[in-house]
Design goal:
It is a single chain. With 731 residues, the protein is of the alpha+beta class. The chain has 24 helices and 22 strands. The strands form five sheets. The protein has a five-stranded antiparallel beta sheet with strand order 2-1-5-4-3. A five-stranded antiparallel beta sheet has the order 7-6-10-9-8. A five-stranded antiparallel beta sheet has the order 12-11-15-14-13, with helices on both faces. Strand 1 and strand 2 form a beta hairpin. It is elongated, with a radius of gyration of 62 Å. InterPro entries: HATPase_C_sf, HATPase_dom, His_kinase_dom, HisK_dim/P_dom, HisK_dim/P_sf, PAS, PAS-assoc_C, PAS-like_dom_sf. It is an enzyme of class 2 (transferase).
């Protein structure tokens, strides 16, 4: 809809005046016709006909309201476009607020000001919700109408739909904003080279203000252009439509900035479109520039050229490095064609480097293995790979280590081949030498292990011999005074009994004891001494016997006088060992005692080294006690730690001897500890007290000194048992 024609009609009619009768009819009734309202304006009744024809043919939406905002006249477009059947089919007499209930406060304020005579004509854009549910932007043009006396009787309302123009205006504003804030410099240039528009980026890039740039021509800022060259270039651009090239722009203070230019030829006539951008307003010129125009986009490529220069320099450096590599280097695309090779590879095959580019891999037919490696590498998902291949170089087979690396997202790969022929020959010779050296080393290691074991055993034997001599000397020194004490305890006990009997006899015949003697007897506690003194001698007798048994056990354990193989009682050795370790079985240090269970069979005397067997018993029993002490602490402690010693006779067709079993009910050994239980340097220590060297020595003494057997059993449910088999007669 066009608002111009309607506004003109209303303005012309507003100069007329209504009669007082017609004004009264407008105020008192709502069914008055359009003709009666304008009867005073047009002489005769012919005015009614003209007014009806005018309102019927009026192409715009226009209406008249009285001071109470009730419709007194409407045009047909207003009736068709803005009426609401739910309110009334005929809008005459309907209140304006019923038809438009959501108008803004500003609209109502302006309407009140017009009715009050303080505001003549005013315009306002609002958004309306129509009866069909659609949304429409409209432009209101409002002016008061007056009676013939000059009193304001109401308002003339005109509506123009501006939805499309408003959307187009918003689009143009966004386009203009995008152009002004574009990252590239934008210049609009006429065919004579004059700048008619520049954006903010162009001002920043060239260092000029917008007013300064609009006074220049394109060849003022591009030193490569002149008026003649510009004319030729304009013709070229017009012929091609657009053109992209690199150029230079001269900035303020003489700085030259390299740019990439994209220029488009705009040959649009103003009459071809309804809306045009008025560049004259933007540029400050009085007239819009004459089309066609050249739209010139310039992008600063200073950083890109600097980066390109660095890349070129780096490429030259890389080429120099690759040519210096003493290996065969090649670049291959995923379509299995050479992208390039280094000088060393070209020299190796006598082919210039440029002849490799674009050729298929394998065109030289010198290494099928390399060809297969390249094919397989591009077929796989691996980004790196390596393989040894054999290639014929100058008619001689050579061995190369090929290392491959993909790049460009797998579209190409670089292959580096290092000549390892001499190294391969050296490796073969070295492998043969290593095999011989390995055999010698194994022999030496076995001999060293045997030597270490022998040395360890000799050291342990020497220690035990020294310890035995020390224990024997101590036992001998203890034995003499103990024998003296033990031999005189009986005489002393008899003497005391005689003296006590003498005192009793004296008291019998002399019952009247002098007071001095009576006091002394009470002072020394004669009655208590008479009762306790025999008990004291009995305790001394038990202690002396205990010391004598310990000394005897020490002498039996050391067996210094039995270093040769002889018939011996196994039970004596076990008992002497258990007696020496008796203190470790007793409760101490916050832990309970260890229960000892001995189950001895009826064993004959066996031929053995008694001292060495006692050492075996000592090492094994000590190991069991350490395990039980460890099992008696922690969250998994056992309730009743028990050490069991069992002896039985073993008879079969191929062997006859005795079996000694030493077991505990502690935790079972782990598979790792079980496998190395007899290893002298690898076995796990128990409780951090000692290593398992004693188990290794026991294993050696049983197997090699007595020709027996020793086995370790540790069931999963717990416990550990050592089973020792000693033949009755040892060879």
């Amino acid at each position: 809809m066009q608002l111009t024609g309607v506004s003109r009609i209303v303005n012309n009619q507003s100069t007329q005046s209504f009669s007082s009768q017609e004004a009264a009819s407008v105020s008192n009734g709502y069914n008055c016709s359009y003709n009666s309202m304008y009867s005073a304006a047009v002489p005769g009744r012919s005015g009614d006909i003209l007014f009806n024809q005018l309102m019927a043919s009026m192409p715009t939406a226009i209406a008249m309201v009285d001071r109470q905002m009730r419709y007194v006249a409407i045009s047909q477009p207003w009736q068709d476009h803005y009426s609401d059947s739910q309110i009334s089919e005929n809008l005459l007499g309907v209140c304006h607020d019923q038809l438009f209930p959501n108008l803004s406060d500003r609209w109502h304020e302006n309407a009140e000001a017009s009715l009050a005579g303080t505001l003549d004509i005013w315009e306002l854009e609002t958004c309306l919700s129509l009866s069909d549910g659609s949304i429409e932007w409209v432009k209101w043009v409002v002016k008061p109408w007056k009676t013939e006396t000059g009193a304001i009787a109401g308002l003339i309302l005109s509506l123009e739909a501006i939805t499309e123009s408003k959307q187009l205006k918003d689009t143009l504003q966004l386009t203009q904003l995008a152009m002004d804030r574009a990252a590239d410099a934008v210049l609009w240039i006429t065919l004579d080279g004059r700048l008619c528009y520049v954006n903010d980026t162009a001002c920043r890039l060239l260092g000029y203000s917008r007013a300064e740039l609009l006074k220049l021509k394109i060849y003022d800022i591009d030193p490569d252009l002149s008026p003649t060259i510009w004319s030729v270039q304009c013709e070229d651009i017009r012929h091609k439509g657009s053109l992209t090239f690199e150029s230079r722009h001269s900035c303020r203070h003489g700085i030259i900035c390299p740019v990439e230019v994209n220029v488009n030829y705009l040959e649009v006539k103003p009459s071809d479109i309804n809306i045009k951008v008025n560049t004259a307003i933007q540029t400050g010129d009085r007239h819009s520039p004459t089309l066609p125009l050249l739209c010139w986009f310039a992008r600063d490529i200073s950083e890109r050229q600097a980066a390109s220069s660095v890349i070129t320099e780096s490429r030259d450096q890389l080429e120099a490095v690759l040519n210096a590599v003493p290996g065969l280097v090649s670049w291959v695309s995923s379509d299995l064609r050479y992208l390039g090779v280094n000088q060393h590879l070209a020299n190796a095959y006598g082919v210039p480097t440029h002849q490799f580019i674009g050729k298929e891999v394998g065109f030289l037919q010198t290494s099928p293995e390399f060809n297969q490696f390249v094919y397989a590498f591009f077929d796989s998902n691996n980004w790196t790979s390596s393989r040894e291949i054999i290639a014929n170089v100058k008619g001689e087979p050579r061995t190369y280590l090929i290392v491959a690396q993909k790049y460009h997202r797998g579209a190409a790969a670089v292959f580096v081949g290092l000549d390892i022929t001499e190294r391969r020959n050296m490796e073969i010779a070295l492998r043969l030498s290593e095999e011989q050296e390995t055999r010698r080393r194994s022999e030496l290691e076995a001999a060293l292990v045997q030597l270490q074991r022998t040395q360890t055993q000799l050291v342990q034997t020497e220690k035990m011999s020294s310890l035995g001599q020390l224990v024997a000397g101590i036992a001998h020194e203890i034995n003499n005074p103990v024998n003296f004490i033990f031999g005189n305890l009986g005489h002393g006990y008899k003497y005391i009994e005689d003296l006590l009997r003498l005192v009793d006899l004296y008291k019998q015949y002399y019952p009247e004891t002098p007071p001095e003697i009576e006091e002394e007897m009470e002072e020394i506690g004669y009655d208590f001494i008479k009762i306790d003194l025999p008990k004291m001698f009995e305790s001394m007798q038990v202690g002396a016997e205990r010391i004598r048994d310990v000394v005897r056990s020490l002498r039996v354990f050391t067996r210094l006088d039995e270093a040769q193989m002889k018939a011996a009682n196994i039970h004596e050795g076990l008992d002497s060992t258990l007696l020496i370790l008796q203190n470790r079985l007793q409760a101490k240090g916050g832990r309970g005692s260890i229960k000892l269970v001995k189950t001895y069979g009826d064993l004959p005397l066996i031929e053995c080294y008694p001292g060495q067997l006692n050492q075996v018993f000592m090492n094994l029993i000590t190991y069991h006690i350490d395990r039980l002490e460890m099992a008696m602490v922690g969250s998994d402690r056992i309730a009743h730690p028990t050490l069991s010693v069992t002896t039985t006779i073993v008879e079969s067709k191929d062997k006859k001897g005795v079996m000694i079993s030493i077991a505990d009910n502690g935790l079972s050994l782990s598979p790792e500890d079980f496998q190395q239980v007899f290893e002298p340097l690898l076995a796990t220590p128990t409780c951090g007290q000692r290593t398992a060297l004693g188990l290794s020595i026991a294993h050696h003494l049983v197997l090699e000194k007595h020709g027996g057997e020793i086995a370790c059993v540790s069931p999963p449910q717990g416990g550990l048992e050592f089973r020792i088999y000693i033949p009755l007669k040892c060879n």
